Amino acid sequence: MKNLDMDLRTRIIELRVQGYSAGEVADRLLISERSVSRLWSQYQSLGHVEAKQRGGYKL
C-alpha cells in the first residue's frame, strides 16, 4: 500500500472539517472509507496529517 500524497491528505481534512462524513469523502475522492477515518483520527489526536515513517532506520 502506498502513502497518500500531502495534497490528498489536505483535501480529506478540509472536507471532513466542512462536515462531510468519512463515507462521503471516500466516495468523492475515490479512496477507502477506512483511509479517511484513519487520517481524520491522526489529525484529531496529533494535529497534523504527515505520513509516518515506513521502513528504514528510526532516528
Quick description:
The protein is an all-alpha fold. Helices cover about 60% and strands about 0% of the residues.
Topology:
Elements: H1 6-17, H2 22-29, H3 33-46
Compute the separation of the termini in Å. Answer: 23 Å
What coarse outline follows from CA principal-axis ratios?
globular
Estimated radius of gyration: 12 Å
* SS-derived structural category: mainly alpha
Total of helices: 3
Oligomer state of the chains in this structure: single chain
Sheet of most strands: none
Percent range for helical residues? 55-70%
Note poorly predicted spans: none
As a percent range, the share of strand residues is under 5%
In sequence order, what are the helices and strands, one letter per element? HHH
Q: Quick check: average pLDDT?
A: 88
Query: How many β-strand stretches?
Result: 0
Structure overview:
The chain is mainly α and 59 residues long. The chain has a domain at 6-46. It has three helices and no strands. The chain has helices at residues 6-17, 22-29, 33-46. Helix 1 crosses helix 2, helix 1 packs across helix 3 and helix 2 (22-29) packs across helix 3 (33-46). The model has no long low-confidence stretch (mean pLDDT 88).
